[in-house]
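Key result, reporting period 2: structure in, sequence out.
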């Protein structure tokens, strides 16, 4: 089967069977990924099911096991099971030690102008990362990050002050105010109705932000992260872990992401059309921009765990917020 036909078949299988797969014991997310045997990719496309721990088939109740194949029009698609620690937003459900460690490291600088990768938060949230400068369709320049960084999980109000550096990096009013909350995409909690993005923008003065991303330079443009080839090399720059590199594990991912109450969250939210990579992030990296090898923006980091990192497709982010990632300002 040709690669394009195989990918179309995998998408068909994913959309047809995702709901039933997500009801199986231990399955927290599903997407399109490469089949793996003995820790080596077979080069075959599959519907990948993510679980916290693989359980031997003889220990599972009848009907609880992920089927080996999924039927599609004119054939079938193989499945694969991959272990993934349960993802949260912000990335990693941290213990107090990890939280203190995150605050002790990372980029806490006050920067004027500031750029992608810099510390940022609203007055209602703790800490996060600036993705990059964006152009607002209604005019002006804005800073892109996550809803939970700039809008405090739907609790923000238009005009809320936004600080650089973030509150937990000792940002204070009025000296560190760089703009105000402009627009956000609300997150729906506890419903199988899918969220596409966890994203928001803050209006900033043109001279206070640059189009550069720390350690990387100018984004070349933007393209859909769900069009990335599986196994592609990617890079992100975050407030806590700075420049990290990884590989695309799965695309068109659907699943539940938990927003822990200890961090002001409201429980689980269901997301669709996400990109999943190898582990690339820590607490404080929410809002980081994911870039491909050609430095095209492809995703917005919003969650993950010690084994994997989750990103919104940047095309969906642009459409939801009415923004454009420019090549220059």
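The corresponding designed sequence is given below.
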């Amino acid at each position: 089967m040709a690669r394009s036909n195989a990918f179309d078949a995998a998408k068909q299988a994913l959309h047809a069977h995702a709901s039933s797969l997500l009801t199986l014991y231990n399955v927290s997310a599903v997407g399109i990924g490469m089949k793996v045997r003995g820790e080596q990719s077979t080069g075959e496309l599959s519907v990948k099911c993510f679980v916290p721990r693989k359980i031997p088939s003889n220990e599972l109740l009848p009907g609880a096991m992920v089927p080996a194949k999924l039927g599609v029009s004119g054939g079938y698609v193989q499945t694969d099971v991959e272990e993934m620690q349960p993802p949260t937003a912000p990335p990693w459900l941290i213990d107090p030690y990890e939280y203190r460690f995150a605050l002790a490291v990372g980029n806490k600088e006050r920067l004027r102008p500031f750029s992608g990768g810099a510390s940022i938060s609203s007055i209602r949230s703790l800490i996060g990362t600036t993705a990059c400068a964006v152009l607002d369709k209604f005019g002006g320049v804005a800073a892109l990050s996550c809803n939970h960084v700039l809008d405090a999980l739907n609790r923000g109000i238009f005009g809320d002050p936004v600080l650089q550096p973030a509150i937990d990096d000792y940002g204070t009013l009025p000296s560190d105010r760089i703009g105000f909350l402009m627009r956000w995409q609300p997150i729906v909690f506890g419903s199988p109705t899918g969220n596409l993005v966890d994203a928001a923008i803050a209006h900033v003065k043109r001279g206070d932000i640059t189009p550069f991303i720390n350690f990387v330079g100018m984004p070349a443009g933007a393209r859909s992260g769900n069009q990335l080839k599986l196994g592609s090399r990617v890079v992100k720059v975050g407030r806590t872990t700075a420049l990290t590199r990884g590989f695309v594990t799965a695309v068109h991912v659907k699943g539940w992401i938990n927003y822990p109450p200890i961090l002001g969250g409201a429980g689980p939210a269901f997301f669709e059309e996400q990109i999943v990579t190898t582990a690339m992030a820590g607490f404080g990296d929410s809002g980081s921009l994911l870039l491909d090898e050609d430095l095209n923006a492809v995703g917005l980091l919003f969650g993950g765990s010690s084994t994997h990192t989750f990103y919104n497709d940047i095309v969906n982010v642009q459409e939801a917020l009415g923004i454009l990632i420019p090549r220059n300002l």
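Helices lie at 3-21, 96-104, 147-150, 314-321. Residues 96-213 form a domain with the Thrombin, subunit H fold (CATH 2.40.10). This case is discussed further under Risks and Mitigation.
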